[in-house]
C-alpha cells in the first residue's frame, strides 16, 4: 500500500468511527423510503454518491503534496550574502582603473571566484566585492578607484534594474563606471544600476561610451602572473586607428618576437585579434601597444608577465 493510500484509509476510518448508528436504523430507513416517491429514492442515491465522492476528494485534499516550483514571474530575488557554504565557482569579469596615456581608463580581468551559489545576484555581489577588495587586481598596474573598506550590503534585481547597496559613496566618476561595467559584465547589455549608500538612494547609473571609458588597448589573455603551456594563446582587444596594433615578446631585455596585429575592426569600434605563439619554458613579458603616426612613440601599452612551463 502506498503512503497516500494509507493516509486516505486512516482518514476514512476516523470519519466512520464518529458515526453513531441506532439499533433500529435499518427498519426506520425502510419505512421512510416506502412512504416517499421513487424520484426521491433515486435522488437520495445520487446525493449519497455525490457526498461520498466529495468525502473522498476532501480526503485527498488533506494528503500532503510536493511543493510546485516557484513562478519566475512572481518569485522573489534571493538576497546577497558575502558568506557561502557551497563549492560553486565562476569566472567573473572585474574592471579596474589604469593609466592610458595619462588618462584614467578601465581595464578588465577575469577572476575565478568561489560563491555560495550561481545565481545572478550572487555573481554580481561577488564581482563587486572583488572589485572593491584592495590590491585584488592581478596586474599591479591596475587598481580599484574605490576607497578601502567599502562593503556590498545588498544586491537585488527587478526587471532591467540592478540595485546595489554599498556602505560608502563612489569617490569619482571613474569609480562609478568601474561599478557599472563590472555589474554589466555579469548581466550583459547596458543595465540600469540603482546605487544605494547605506540604504538611501544615491544615484542611477548607466555605462558611459566605451570609447571614453575603456582603455584603448588591452591584453585579455594570458593574464598577468598566469602560468601557461608552451603554445601560448594570445587575445588582444581595443579601439585603435586602422585596427592596427603591435605585439612584442621579451625575455628580460631580449626581444623574442615582434609582430603587427590586425584587429577585426578599427576605432571607434572595439576589435579583437587572436594568435598562438610557441615559446620555450621561462618567464616572458608580453606587450600590446600602438605606434603614434605623428612621432613613432609607443602608445596605449598594456603588458603582462607570464610564465611558460
Automatic annotation (TrEMBL):
Lineage, top-rank taxon, reads Bacteria
Work out whether the entry's keyword set contains rRNA-binding: no
Pfam families listed in its UniProt record: Germane, Gmad2
Please report the stretch or stretches of sequence annotated as the GerMN domain: 124-206
Bilayer-crossing regions: 39-63
User: What is the name of the protein in this document?
Assistant: GerMN domain-containing protein
The cross-references to SMART domains, in alphabetical order and at most eight, read: Germane (SM00909)
What species is this protein from?
Phytohabitans aurantiacus
Q: Which UniProt keywords apply?
A: Membrane, Transmembrane, Transmembrane helix
Amino acid at each position: 500500500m502506498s503512503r497516500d493510500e494509507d493516509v486516505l484509509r486512516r482518514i476514512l476510518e476516523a470519519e466512520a468511527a464518529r458515526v453513531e448508528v441506532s439499533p433500529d436504523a435499518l427498519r426506520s430507513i425502510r419505512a421512510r423510503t416506502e412512504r416517499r416517491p421513487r424520484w426521491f429514492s433515486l435522488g437520495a442515491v445520487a446525493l449519497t454518491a455525490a457526498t461520498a465522492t466529495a468525502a473522498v476528494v476532501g480526503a485527498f485534499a488533506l494528503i500532503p503534496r510536493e511543493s510546485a516550483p516557484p513562478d519566475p514571474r512572481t518569485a522573489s530575488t534571493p538576497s546577497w550574502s558575502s558568506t557561502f557554504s557551497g563549492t560553486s565557482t565562476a569566472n567573473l569579469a572585474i574592471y579596474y582603473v589604469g593609466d592610458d596615456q595619462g588618462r584614467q581608463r578601465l581595464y578588465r580581468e577575469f577572476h575565478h571566484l568561489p560563491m555560495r551559489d550561481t545565481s545572478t545576484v550572487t555573481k554580481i555581489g561577488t564581482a563587486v566585492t572583488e572589485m572593491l577588495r584592495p590590491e585584488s587586481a592581478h596586474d599591479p598596474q591596475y587598481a580599484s578607484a574605490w576607497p578601502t573598506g567599502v562593503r556590498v550590503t545588498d544586491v537585488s534585481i527587478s526587471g532591467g534594474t540592478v540595485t546595489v547597496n554599498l556602505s560608502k559613496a563612489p569617490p569619482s566618476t571613474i569609480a562609478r563606471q568601474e561599478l557599472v561595467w563590472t555589474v554589466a559584465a555579469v548581466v550583459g547589455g547596458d543595465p540600469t544600476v540603482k546605487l544605494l549608500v547605506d540604504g538611501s538612494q544615491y544615484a542611477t547609473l548607466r555605462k558611459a561610451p566605451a570609447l571614453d571609458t575603456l582603455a584603448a588597448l588591452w591584453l585579455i589573455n594570458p593574464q598577468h602572473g598566469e602560468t601557461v603551456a608552451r603554445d601560448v594563446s594570445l587575445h588582444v582587444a581595443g579601439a585603435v586607428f586602422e585596427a592596427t596594433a603591435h605585439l612584442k615578446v621579451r625575455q628580460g631585455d631580449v626581444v623574442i618576437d615582434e609582430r603587427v596585429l590586425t584587429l577585426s575592426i578599427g576605432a571607434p569600434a572595439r576589435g579583437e585579434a587572436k594568435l598562438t605563439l610557441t615559446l620555450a619554458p621561462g618567464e616572458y613579458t608580453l606587450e600590446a601597444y600602438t605606434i603614434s603616426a605623428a612621432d613613432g612613440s609607443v602608445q596605449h601599452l598594456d603588458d603582462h608577465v607570464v610564465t611558460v612551463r
